Amino acid sequence: MPLITDTGFAPDDAITLTPLDALPEAGEGVALDLPLDADTEAVAAYFNRLDLIVIPFPNFGDGRGFSLAKRLRSLGYRGRLRATGHLIPDQYAFARFCGFDEVQITDEQAERQPENQWTSATRALPPFLRRRVSGWV
Amino acid sequence: MYRYDEFDHDYVRARVSEFRDQTQRRIDGALTEDEYKPLRLQNGLYLQLHAYMLRVAVPYGTLNSRQMRTLAMIAERWDEGYGHFTTRQNIQYNWTKLTDVGDILDALADVEMHAIQTSGNCIRNVTADHFAGAAADEIEDPRPTAELVRQWSTAHPEFAFLPRKFKIAVTGSPNDRAVTKAHDIGLRMLRNDAGEPGYEVIVGGGLGRTPMIGKVIRDFLPKDDLLPYLEAILRVYNLHGRRDNKYKARIKILVHETGIDDMRAQVEAEFDRQMREEGGPLVAPDPVQVAKITAYFAPPAFEVLPDASTTLETAMANDAALAAWVGNNTSEHRTPGYAIVTVAIKGTGEAPGDATTAQMRVLADMGEKYSHDELRISHEQNVVLPHVRKDDLPAVFSALRKAGLATANAGLITDIIACPGLDYCALATARSIPVAQDLSRRFAAPERAKAIGNFTIKISGCINACGHHHVGHVGILGLEKSGIENYQITLGGDHTETMAVGERAGPGISAEEVGPAIERLVDAYLDTRADENERFIDTYRRIGAEPFKEALYAA
Ligand code: HEM
Ligand code: SF4
Description:
The complex is a heterodimer of chains A (137) and B (555). By secondary structure, chain A is an alpha/beta fold. Chain A has one domain (3-131): TIM Barrel, CATH 3.20.20.70. Chain A contains 6 helices and 7 strands. Chain B has 555 residues and is of the alpha+beta class. Chain B folds into 4 domains: 6-110, Sulfite Reductase Hemoprotein, domain 2 (Alpha-Beta Complex); 142-294, Sulfite Reductase Hemoprotein, domain 1; 310-402, Sulfite Reductase Hemoprotein, domain 2 (Alpha-Beta Complex), CATH 3.90.480.20; 417-552, Sulfite Reductase Hemoprotein, domain 1, CATH 3.30.413. In chain B, the strands form 4 sheets. Chain B has a 5-stranded antiparallel beta sheet with strand order 1-2-5-4-13. In chain B, strands 3-14-15-12-11 form a 5-stranded antiparallel beta sheet. A 5-stranded mixed beta sheet of chain B has the order 6-7-8-9-10. In chain B, β11 and β12 form a beta hairpin. Chain B is globular and about 65 Å long. The chains are: A alpha/beta (137), B alpha+beta (555). Chains A and B meet through α2, α3 and α6 of A and α1, α2, α6, α8 and α9 of B.
């Protein structure tokens, strides 16, 4: 299950995930497995104890993870954010702009969509943000 | 009119090559059919009954003559010589070959057009009042808002995989010509008591199998808060909209199941969260950008003219056909001496919205010569010349007449909306075009149509309601019953600011029965109306459905 970042594929870090209901008892440096229907405001109380939040993508057409990531960032989460499950290379940039740092896919998918397809997929900012960044506006 | 900046140009070109690459990856097998389909749809390409269909965006229905000529060229070169203007202010080509798509998209990009987000579960092409910037009753031009929304929603990273499609419409006039209450979000421009500009935000309207009238979620949203507020609505929808059943996936169902008050609370909380973000919301509007967009829509250089045109009056006195057309197909312009012209793309016996290459070229010429190079596509499937000098109306009429485009039926009973139906659409349960053609022949006599007055008939070929049948004064829904087409009639719908969903009149009837039944209904209306100024819809509201049901089923 390779991890994909801006530099390409990296091996699976096989990190142990903490389920949401175990969060209150978990210590520092937690990697949280966040369900899509989680109450994000409640999770926000624990942000300083989290190193990583993993958000599932059950199917690439299910875009809830994008909004969940945006909301976590909007609530002030500054740690690492990972999307895991089914995303396609064409969604990599979307994931990054929504606040994800990395994407994890299955080995089967990595075989069908090897590293070069992920690195060559568009990274361009959407035009709305390009205008902003370039100072055009 | 809006002109692309470098970012639009770059993006549209990059998107064409990206789509070519995606198609190649589908052919290689890197993308499965399931993975490719939404990418194809978000680039406007549908698979229909006989061929692919390409849906080209006409943002808020505004285009120039050069763009119209390109639409004509595409119809000629890559289709069968015509295109279909739709209720979504777009144009569809019904006979697209997969191998031509890249070239068509390149040709569109040459004239600052594209097919992006005309389909798929994303924010679709934004629609607006087709009389924008011209109408006498307008508070403010809705197009700068629509353009801002277009820019914000194009390739929005968070909202490309929503539970379902998402449609936004904007009107700047209290007389709603943009059907805002039947959209996922409707924006009505207004001013508050202090005179500040803003929007009434309507959410959760829609047609389809569960028609719903949109509800007000915010009665006054300051103009500057628009994008963060839209972002908040979309985020709540993206997180909580139903994904278990595609028929329940639109925001209207979420609003209905959650209740508007609870929905409002969630949206306001999301909105507040963004407003509290460090450095303000990412999509906070930039006054410089807004001013830049607004400048593109500055009114053209109108001449100072007397409001009445003696040239026109003399010509009308000598030409009854011209007088009838001017009386019916022009609307009041905000500038003295000018008029808004509605060109009917539905002559007697024609398929509503279908325009040939030759007709599109005539329309382009008319726009260039007589309407400050501007044309509009209306959701009524007509083309509008927004800024015509009254002095020029006789010349425009004569040129349109030669092209078969001078039917004087705007707003009358033959100004029918019809979806493609079983002639093209893979989802259809019945034909809609032949029904429209039959009705248009039955009511072709201009004096009779004029006597009937404002009367809207809207026809859909299945429950999805692309033909807006729920909001027609008379709606016709084509269904199928044991292999036979069967049409359900609804009465009393209204697509304007007083929106109403029509009521079912009774059991469905066969295709041949539709025409005679509607004729009887119209006769019953003419017999019972209080006076000539009482429209069918008013009579219906006054006396109720019963007499009309009786007339429909009298045979
Ligand atoms: C021919 C291929 C087409 C297909 C496959 C198609 C598909 C659909 C479907 C499935 C819906 C229901 C959506 C829902 O309720 O969630 C719908 C609604 C709609 N479509 Fe189409 N459509 C087609 C053509 C058109 C055309 C030609 C127009 C414009 C004339 C159009 C405009 C609309 C409108 C206005 C609605 C209803 C408003 C709403 O979204 O609630 N569609 N379409
Ligand atoms: S209403 Fe039905 S038949 Fe008509 S275009 Fe829409 S999906 Fe097709």
